[in-house]
Amino acid sequence: MATSSKEKIPEYSRISELNCIDVSDPDTQSTVLLLKKACLESGFFYVINHGIDEEFIDEVFDQSKRFFNLPVEEKMKLLRNEKNRGYTPLFDQSLDPVNQINGDYKEGFYIGIEVPEDDSDAEKPFYSPNLWPSVDILPGWRETMEKYHREALEVARAVSRLIALALDLNSDFFDQYEMLGKPTAAIKLLYYQDRTSEPANGIFGAGAHSDFGLITLLATDDNYGLQICRDKDAKPRLWEYVPPLKGAFIVNLGDMLERWSNCVFRSTLHRVLGNGQERYSIAFFVEPNHDCIIECLPTCQSEENPPKFTPIKSQDYLLRRYSDTHVNLNLYK
């Protein structure tokens, strides 16, 4: 009999219990209170009843698997470019280089906002045409991913409005800051090979890190792997597995929200451990407009609690973080 993913969890592992945020609930006040509790306690929560059809999400996973099952030489034709579009091979990213020996044991594929080459915005670091597999090899692939990007962005908008209310702001605060009107939101398809991670030896599916932007929406298959650490300063750190929840997004807060909120809401450390089974997930990184200035919110500061971070332009922060965690493209030449 096949071993289930849950049975692959090491004995005595901690399992995280996260709040479920129902974005369709008409009782907005109760939803905001539940979300705020989640943001204060763990920075992670589930989002349910988000409006994306479960069968369509299954289709996105199927298309993702089709791409990662292609021969390496086909995938390398779509190698990630300087605008962070395209395929990321094994070890292309190292999210915790101090504690990793080779980098992340995962492959990926970035899909961002589609901006034509002749558009003036295409000069910005995270805007450009996407890289797409040939329709002869993967028919319908582009259409599926573009639809998913549109629908995931609508879910992100709904969640951002609840977060704004939880921070005592107007619900449209982040839209006013051109964050979700013209963001740098990107899908990253992820494939973890069937290797068992060895934390003591520096081998991880994905090293410990926090995400860069406002929030991340994560869809996963039914294999365990994602772990969170509620207190990054604890010694030793205590890691908890986040159980997959069919049809739900796992949502976590990013560094820019931590900066905006003056650390009221934290960007939580997380990592992925391989358990000897293949694992697929789909991350949707919601990051601000290039020119958005990230600075302490008026509702999150006082004389006793002054701003902890200097203001920074979104583009500058993202460029640094992506550069720090990805290998130099010259290494592939």
UniProtKB/TrEMBL annotation:
Per the database record, which ranges form the Fe2OG dioxygenase domain?
182-288
PROSITE patterns associated with the record: FE2OG_OXY
- Which molecular function terms from Gene Ontology are attached? 2-oxoglutarate-dependent dioxygenase activity; metal ion binding
- Give the highest taxon in the source lineage: Eukaryota
Gene Ontology BP terms: coumarin biosynthetic process; response to molecule of fungal origin
Keywords, in A-Z order: Iron, Metal-binding, Oxidoreductase
Pfam families tied to this protein: 2OG-FeII_Oxy (PF03171), DIOX_N (PF14226)
Among its keywords, does the record have Acyltransferase? Answer: no
Q: Which InterPro entries match?
A: DIOX_N, IPNS-like_FE2OG_OXY, IPNS-like_sf, Oxoglu/Fe-dep_dioxygenase_dom
Report if keyword Metal-binding is assigned. yes
Which family does the record assign?
Belongs to the iron/ascorbate-dependent oxidoreductase family.
Tell me what this protein is called: Fe2OG dioxygenase domain-containing protein
